[in-house]
Write a structure and sequence with these properties.
The chain is of the alpha/beta class. 44% of the residues lie in helices and 20% in strands. The chain has one domain: Rossmann fold (3-Layer(aba) Sandwich), CATH 3.40.50.150. The protein is globular, with a radius of gyration of 17 Å.
Length: 245
C-alpha cells in the first residue's frame, strides 16, 4: 500500500484537543468573521454531496459546534438521523445547546469520540462527512479507513478541508492574509494567538488536492474526486465505500 506523503510536524492530538477546548466559546464567531461567512456556503455544498436512504443515518465526524450536523438536518428528510462526534467536550457542549435550540433536536445526537477509533459497528451509516477536521488527525489514513468501515457499501465519504490556491497572485494574497492577518485578528478576539498560528501552519502542511486524492484512494475508497471552492481556498473531496466482495 502506498504511504501517505510525509509532512513534518503532524498534529499532536493532546495539544490540538487543548487548543479546541480553549477556543470553543469564540469558535463560531471567528469562523464567520475570518472566512467572510464563506464557511457557511462551503459546508452547505459539502453536505449536498452526501447520500442516504429511507430512515437513513449520517455520521458527522469532528462535528465541533454542530454546524455540519445541523446543515445535514436541513438538507435531509425528516426520517434521517444524524450522529455527530468530536474529541472536544467543550465544543460539543456548545453544539448541544445549538441542537437543543433548533427544530432538529429529535434527529441529532452528539457524543465524544475519536475519529481514529469510531465507536460504531460496521456499515452503520449511509454516509459520513468530516469538515475542517481531517488535517488535525495524526493518522489520516486510519481515520479514513474508520469512515469507510462504519459506512454501508456504496455509501459516500465526504471530506471538506482548507487548501492553498494555486494561482500565483491569489496564493500570495492568501498567504499574506493567512500568515499575517488571521493570526493577529484571531488571537486578539479569542485570546489564544497560538490557536490561530496553528491554523495556517496546519493548512500549509496539509497535502495538495492530488496528494489527498491519492490518500483517499489508497485507504480503500473508490470513485474519488475533488472540487475546489472559492478559488481553491477550500476543497470538497468525495469517495465511495467499496462494495463487499
Amino acid at each position: 500500500m502506498t504511504k501517505e506523503p510525509q509532512h513534518n510536524n503532524l498534529p499532536d492530538p493532546d495539544k490540538v484537543k487543548s487548543m479546541f477546548q480553549s477556543i470553543a466559546p469564540r469558535y463560531d464567531f471567528l469562523n464567520r468573521l475570518l472566512s467572510g461567512r464563506r464557511d457557511v456556503a462551503w459546508r452547505r455544498k459539502a453536505v449536498a454531496q452526501l447520500t442516504w436512504g429511507e430512515r437513513g443515518r449520517i455520521l458527522d465526524i469532528a462535528t465541533g459546534t454542530a454546524d455540519v450536523a445541523l446543515e445535514i438536518a436541513r438538507q435531509t428528510a425528516e426520517t434521517v438521523k444524524i450522529t455527530g462526534v468530536d474529541f472536544s467536550p467543550n465544543m460539543l457542549e456548545i453544539g448541544q445547546q445549538k441542537v437543543r435550540e433548533s427544530r432538529f433536536s429529535h434527529r441529532i445526537e452528539l457524543k465524544v469520540a475519536d475519529a481514529q477509533a469510531l465507536p460504531f459497528d460496521d456499515g452503520t451509516f449511509d454516509s459520513t462527512i468530516i469538515a475542517f477536521g481531517i488535517r488535525n488527525i495524526p493518522d489520516r489514513d486510519l481515520a479514513l479507513r474508520e469512515m469507510i468501515r462504519v459506512v454501508k457499501p456504496g455509501g459516500k465519504v465526504v471530506v471538506l478541508e482548507f487548501t492553498t490556491p494555486q494561482a500565483k497572485i491569489l496564493k500570495n494574497l492568501y498567504h499574506f492574509y493567512f500568515l499575517k492577518v488571521l493570526p493577529i485578528l484571531g488571537g486578539v478576539i479569542s485570546g489564544k494567538k497560538d490557536a490561530y498560528e496553528y491554523l495556517p501552519d496546519s493548512v500549509l502542511k496539509f497535502p495538495t488536492q492530488e496528494e489527498f486524492k491519492g490518500i483517499m484512494s489508497t485507504s480503500g475508497l473508490t470513485n474519488v474526486t475533488y472540487r475546489n471552492l472559492t478559488f481553491g481556498i477550500a476543497c470538497i473531496h468525495t469517495g465511495v465505500a467499496p462494495e463487499k466482495k
